[in-house]
Fold each of these.
Amino acid sequence: MIRDLYEVIFRRRDVRAEFTGAPVDPAVLDRILTAAHAAPSVGLSQPWDFVVIRSPRIKEDFHHHVHTERDVFAATLTGEEKARFDRIKIDGVRESSLSIVVTYDPARGGPSILGRHAIADAGLYSVCLAVQNLWLAATAEGFGVGWVSFYREEFLSGLLGIPAGIRPVAWLCLGPVSHLAEVPDLERHGWRRRRPLSAAVHDDRWGA
Ligand SMILES: Cc1cc2nc3c(=O)[nH]c(=O)nc-3n(C[C@H](O)[C@H](O)[C@H](O)COP(=O)(O)O)c2cc1C
């Protein structure tokens, strides 16, 4: 059981190219969303919502916007870096079976959120934990997930009718995949390498 958890953690990948587009069993989707909804949250605020997107029209509009933003980022690059970025696929919006947009409502739970008075971002952290639960549950189900963040929040809120005050935090492509890559795409393309754990762990004081 413990081994299974570690196996899923290390097998998880961010997916763009490997989606098959095969249908998602509603019972499986329900299990994945139930896992996301079981995440810890500051003051038990559960500030997330999940918008399940199947509409080809919405996906198409979003995909178009993502590629406009891709161009915005590409324009900040030059030389070899730009050439490398040009080869990287940054989303599977069209290819994945469905998408899930995870949102954050800072007003959920009233004004007195236990544990958030000094750190407003604790609400956002909670939403990210729901995303990670979703990601791991989907991986355990044999699915892939791809987080897409090449978008402007105002655009996505307008597209999905998200009310003012509620923030879209993640657009997640989800569905069956041909396989999960062993190495992250960005590493495979030579964009960036993972740092070793030893560089991230400090003893007692920063830098030690
Ligand atoms: C907040 C967040 C936003 C991300 N946005 C994108 C994105 O827009 N496009 C993309 O291709 N990957 C995106 N990723 C995936 C990362 O590039 C990926 O997690 C990282 O390269 C490590 O690979 P792995 O998840 O397969 O281990 C995002 C990941 C996170 C956590």
Amino acid sequence: MVTSPDNAPSASPVQCLVVDDDPQVRDSLVRVIQEQGLACLATASADEALAYLSAHDGVAVLITDIRMPGTDGVALLSEVRRRHPDTAVIMVSAVADVQIAVECLKMGALDYIAKPMVIGEVQARVAKALEKRELTLQNRYYQQHLETEVRRQRARIEQLFLEGAQTLTHALEAKDAYTRGHSRRVREYAVRTAVMLGYTGDFLDNLGLGAELHDIGKIGTREAILNKPGGLTPEEFRHVAEHTVLGERILAPLAGDRPVVLHIARSHHERVDGDGFPDGLRGDGIPMEARIVCVVDAFDAMTTDRAYRDSLTAVNAFRELERCAGLQFDAAVVQAFTSAFPGPDHLPLHTSHPPMAGDPR
Ligand SMILES: [Fe+2]
């Protein structure tokens, strides 16, 4: 029978279970433990204790006498270790049994209390056992969850970095009336074009992000050259071209597991005829995500005023894309882009344009 000293049912989950065949010892132990604010019950035998543990989760500490009729404390310890390893066990031993108590420690008992028991000592041992058990459980939890937690933190850091990069891109564009909203429009155009080409899921998310950040490397381009009216000298051109490699380098440390984003930063100025930069890639050798951004980036540049020329109408920009399909641009991408926006009169998009149905973000 499971008892409390006055046989009153315990209101809170039982934290401690006392096992002793002597009712006086049993009741006084329960009282002492309850006085330290812990919910405590008792059983008169090892078998009753095992039955109770099997039926009730969460017993933190078991305090058992070593010598009991029937199953003794040592056998109980062994069973509890096997079946309820999260329950800490404290052995109660007569002076003559100290050697057995030491053996019990080797078997996994957390502590032992020698008779005659002193109230303060019992309470201190129980408190220490609870603390040790808590630490053991915490350690196990951290070991089991560390990997997940590290992954979660890494994803969070990556997210914060990418959000920072987006903010930076928008801030740079906002300084210049010619490029204001460029990256957001390129994102819209790119994602809609990819949907038309049949892409779905993560690819669209990363394409959208890469499209928005494609020119982040221009942080390193001298402003006088970026806004220079007229043509560039070969040296100036080389300087501007570096924004591709620099963009990839900026994004690589924290977007390394998003190759789509990095490919866009590096290769959005490659041409299918091999005359692009920085690597002179050709045709299918250029990642599809970069071929998509190349087309829509050119379209947005043509349809917005720049320091060095006025904008084209969307219809004329479409014609220009089609004229250069197979040379500068991937013909299938040009086809998908013009199909995705069958009413070019509504282009270019306004940057306050609400997200389109089917957009992944
Ligand atoms: Fe660019």
Amino acid sequence: MAKAKIVVVGAGLMGLSTAVCISDSITNCSVSVMADRFSPNTTSDVAAGMLIPHLYPGTTIHQQKQWFRETFDHLLSICNSSEASEAGIHLVSGWQIFKAVPEEKTPFWSDVVLGFRSMTEKELKKFPQHKYGQAFTTLKCDCPPYLIWLEKRLKENGGQVHVKKIEDLWELHRDFDIVVNCSGIGSQKLTGDLEIYPIRGQVLKVHAPWIKHFIRDGDGLTYIYPGIYNVTLGGAREKDNWNLSPDPIISKNILDRCSALEPSLWTAENIKVRVGLRPSRSAVRLQKEVLIHKNEKLPVVHNYGHGGGGFSVHHGTAKEATRLVKEVYNVVIHVKWFRSPCRHVGRYTQLMEFWSLCLAAVRMVHVVFPRLMSGNWLMESNHVEDCQCETTLDKTSASWQNERKR
Ligand SMILES: Cc1cc2nc3c(=O)[nH]c(=O)nc-3n(C[C@H](O)[C@H](O)[C@H](O)COP(=O)(O)OP(=O)(O)OC[C@H]3O[C@@H](n4cnc5c(N)ncnc54)[C@H](O)[C@@H]3O)c2cc1C
């Protein structure tokens, strides 16, 4: 049976996790990932990778919770396996603290993370500026290890990776049957989507191995997230700013704010600054589209626009994108199946025409040409007679002669 050729554009978190999900669940296909940047040079490499949901106003809470739960449960099972350290996934406990008591004390994701509860008075004493807090255990993906692990899993499933900048998705129609667009902020150019915009982020990656608990200010602007190899200090949010150069003023400001929450950070060493553009949208674009040029069609499945919360929902959205790819795949595979016998019928017809010509040529040489030469071709001018005359054996046979006499 013909194989469907699927290409995923993008090698960040979305591209790789979607490619792995497709190659895990659709057997009769080839999966390639094509991108101009791979780890450690994607936005996903800059992220802290904490599983704390970010709100998408254009998506129902029910849907967001489902994506978060699917992602959390999936990563928890990896975390409980021998793959955990290579994949860079670990459990981390800590506090989300608020200067004023929030209206919603129990967020929608509180029963997905582990051990969600309000902080005790004793715990809150560490943060004299804050009035209320939530304690819970969640998961964290360390990047680049997680991206490298995903790429390895894709290759184990037979997937391929190619470094290439795509100028137009249509250029892929010659070599692939289905395109999956996971190009993050690159989608603005690739699809002309005006709803997606960058929110510039800047973080510090520091060496402070004594930090074991996360601390997040409820406004989401200041955070301390310990990872396996370093601690991520944040952050910054600048809408529509495309500048990827680190800003030293923002770096100082981040260190000041984080050290106010955790004074031991003043002694942190090996400070590295990273900048990334969150691919932001009111809702993640998870959608099928068919590109049409002249009479040709190219099915595309989009999975981009995860903003500041990609890690928290990536497996859920990869599963949803895979479901859309399966729908497209069923159509593509039928078209391929239909086309291949047609092609054979076409070849068969050509072959039959060739044999007809050969037979006509043989007939010319053996029947018509000798008659022309002997000059009695006029006698045979009646076409029907001519056809009957060809059966010379019958005409000379006894039964035929008897028939003529009668
Ligand atoms: C500072 C910061 C901190 C963050 N912290 C967290 C966090 O703690 N938790 C959380 O859940 N989320 C966090 N995020 C958000 C998260 O990083 C993003 O949602 C996620 O990384 C988006 O992944 P992506 O694969 O869509 O995009 P990207 O990682 O940007 O990948 C896009 C890919 O598409 C490719 N591409 C684009 N255009 C083209 C083209 N024309 N041709 C070929 N290839 C192309 C790129 O090369 C790249 O490979 C954070 C983000 C930032 C910036």
